[in-house]
TrEMBL record:
It comes from Hirundo rustica rustica. It is found in: Membrane. Keywords: Immunoglobulin domain, Membrane, Transmembrane, Transmembrane helix. PANTHER family: IMMUNOGLOBULIN SUPERFAMILY MEMBER 5. InterPro entries: BTN3A2-like_Ig-C, Ig-like_dom, Ig-like_dom_sf, Ig-like_fold, Ig_I-set, Ig_sub. Signal peptide: none annotated. This is Ig-like domain-containing protein. The keyword Calcium does not apply. The chain crosses the membrane at residues 249-273.
Length: 374
């Protein structure tokens, strides 16, 4: 029977006896159980399992697993594992004098990332590791095939969305890595703590080739990839040359037609202006003719009014002199006209024409023209 004092010096506290203490007699003086191999860091993809091992020497009594400082699973040497949640389970292995407890975290989430600790309730006997949960996002190139022609420089965009952390992107052509100076990668934050990346490759193909965009994070066993096939078509160059020639001819024809249209428009405008001027000139001439005709008409009317109608009582001077000269001597004095009716009758015996009234007036040797206004 061990005494209490030597037991305190040589043993390791493992439980309680009737007096509240129980001592490990198997180890003897200077020996105790310990963690011989603690857990190691792990990086896993979200949704997968994470596993951590903790190996202790013989004589252990209790082993506790903690996640970010909180207990998640307990293993007792006498009862086995005490699981409180389905996401944290364990498997136990015994090899010789050593015991190994394997912690299994199911359906890992980004929130599980942090410190994972194995404790046997011994001072300085806590071993820990770190868990990193990463997210594998999507990777795509919009066009799966591209047709290129000679001396054509193109840009190919590879887009990575919803990654954690942001992926490392590289390019390959026909299984050969492309120099990093040929592409540019930009990263940007996404939603829910995720990251996006956009990589743009610029190159001038010389032959048909397959380009591959690779996105890699530590948790991936192999990089995720997206490919695009570049088809180098020489006939496209010839077709482009033909199209360029056709386009050139179309441009030339359009320019010529435009020039001809402008010339035709100018000719039409000049013709219209000349017609308008000619019409105005003819109108002016017509007006002048009309005015001249009116003036002529007015002149004829004035002459007609001045000349009057023919005076039937007019007798030419010659006849006047021959006819009237002998009668001048035989005419009685003016007062004899009123002397008697016989003279009156003699005077009225002249033919009944209006010019006969000339005998009633004093005859003058001057030429007289009577004008009758109509």
């Amino acid at each position: 029977m061990w005494s209490r004092a030597p037991a305190i010096l040589a043993g390791v506290l493992t439980g309680s006896d009737r007096n509240g203490l129980q001592w490990d007699e198997e180890k003897g003086l200077g020996f105790c159980y310990s963690i011989t191999k603690g857990p190691e860091n792990a990086t896993v993809l979200a949704g997968s399992q994470a596993r951590f091992n903790c190996t202790v020497s013989a004589g252990w009594k209790v082993l506790i697993w903690l996640s970010k400082g909180s207990p998640v699973l307990t293993v007792l040497s006498s009862q086995g594992s005490v699981e409180t949640t389905e996401r944290f389970t364990s498997q136990n292995y015994t090899s010789g004098d050593e015991f190994t407890s394997e912690l299994i975290i199911h359906n890992t989430q980004m929130s599980d990332s942090g410190r994972i600790e194995c404790s046997i309730q011994q001072p300085s006997e806590n071993n820990f590791a770190f868990l990193s949960v990463q997210v594998n996002g999507s990777l795509l190139i919009k066009n799966s095939t591209l047709t290129v022609r000679e001396n054509q420089t193109i840009e190919i965009v590879c887009e990575a969305l919803g990654w954690a952390p942001a992926p490392d992107i590289t390019w390959m052509t026909n299984d050969s890595l492309i120099d990093k100076s040929s592409y540019v990668t930009q990263q940007s934050p996404g939603s829910h703590g995720l990251h996006n990346a956009l990589s743009t490759l610029t190159l001038t193909p010389t032959d048909t080739e397959v380009l591959t965009c690779l996105a890699d994070i530590e948790a991936l066993p192999s990089p995720q990839n997206a490919t695009v096939t570049l088809i180098f078509d020489k006939s496209a160059t010839e077709n482009d040359y033909s199209e360029d020639n056709r386009s050139t001819w179309v441009i030339v024809l359009a320019v010529v037609l435009s020039f001809l249209g402008i010339v035709l428009l100018i000719v039409i405008i000049v013709f219209a202006v000349r017609c308008c001027l000619k019409r105005r000139g003819s109108t002016y001439e017509n007006e002048v003719r009309k005015v001249s005709a009116e003036k002529k008409k007015d002149g004829d009317l004035e002459n007609r009014q001045r000349n009057g109608s023919e005076n039937l009582g007019y007798i030419p001077e010659e006849l006047w002199n021959t006819e009237q000269s002998p009668r001048l001597a035989s005419l009685p004095p003016m007062f004899s006209k009123f002397a008697g009716p016989d003279d009156d009758l003699h005077i009225t015996s002249v033919p009944k024409v209006r010019p006969q009234r000339r005998t009633d007036y004093l005859i003058s040797p001057k030429k007289i023209r009577n004008v009758t206004l109509v």
